[in-house]
């Protein structure tokens, strides 16, 4: 096993909330991940924290795996995937949290895969007047933006300060725009100054332009 594979290795753990597949090393955690919340102690929640129904032998209490609050079965009946906490199976969540998790599912099922598959751009570093054709992708552990061409860069996601998506085709009435590039600002470890990179979609092939636009759209989703 290589050093990278060892750092990215995962293990199966059981918590009160369910089975989770987590990185063996905390340093390899995804920046999109969430920690499991502490559960509100049973003795502190005699009633449902949503509908105020009193708990008894018939009305049991359940904890939402996303927020840790205490609810009755009616207010916490949905089992929804929660990949941000690395749960293997869908877990019980309150209605409010379930709605948030369902919205995030598209990001994990679609946008994240697009980012990891990568796309090709002309990349310009800082104020340079020269650009380099590079393949840009999100690393498998989701911690780095990896750029490969004649040069090689790895930008840690948590060091990115701003993402500006460049578009064309804008009209006063709105609509009909497409992403054609991106300006990224980030900090290099050990420096407080911001470094800027400009990404421009290649015009060589129409299929590549479509892939690049999808990748930029996914990157915009990450930066929100």
TrEMBL record:
Coiled-coil ranges (or none): none
GO molecular-function terms, A-Z: zinc ion binding
InterPro entries membership: FYVE-type_Zinc_Finger, ZFYVE21_C, ZFYVE21_C_sf, Znf_FYVE, Znf_FYVE-rel, Znf_FYVE_PHD, Znf_RING/FYVE/PHD
A Pfam family annotated for this UniProt entry: FYVE
Residue ranges annotated for the FYVE-type domain, each copy included: 42-97
PANTHER family, per database record: ARRESTIN DOMAIN-CONTAINING PROTEIN D (PTHR39490), ZINC FINGER FYVE DOMAIN-CONTAINING PROTEIN 21 (PTHR39490:SF8)
Protein name: ZFY21 protein
Gene name as annotated: Zfyve21
């Amino acid at each position: 096993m290589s050093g990278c594979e060892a750092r990215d290795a995962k293990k199966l753990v059981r918590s009160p909330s369910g089975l989770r597949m987590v990185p063996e090393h905390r340093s390899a955690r995804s920046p999109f991940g969430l920690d499991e919340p502490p559960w509100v102690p049973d003795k502190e929640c005699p009633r449902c924290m949503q509908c105020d129904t009193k708990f008894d032998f018939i009305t049991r209490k359940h904890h939402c795996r996303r927020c840790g609050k205490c609810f009755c079965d009616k207010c916490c009946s949905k089992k929804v995937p929660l990949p941000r906490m690395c749960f293997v199976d869908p877990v019980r969540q309150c209605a409010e949290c379930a709605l948030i998790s369902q919205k995030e599912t598209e990001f994990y099922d679609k946008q994240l895969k697009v980012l990891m598959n990568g796309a090709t751009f002309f990349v310009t570093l800082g104020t340079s007047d020269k650009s380099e054709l590079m393949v840009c992708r999100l690393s498998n552990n989701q911690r780095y933006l990896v750029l490969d061409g004649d040069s090689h860069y790895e930008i840690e996601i948590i060091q990115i300060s701003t993402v500006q998506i460049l578009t064309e085709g804008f009209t006063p009435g709105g609509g009909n725009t497409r992403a054609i590039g991106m300006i990224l600002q980030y900090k290099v470890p050990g420096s407080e100054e911001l470094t800027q990179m400009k990404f421009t979609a290649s015009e060589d092939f129409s299929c590549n332009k479509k892939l690049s636009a999808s990748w930029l759209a996914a990157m915009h989703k990450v930066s929100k």
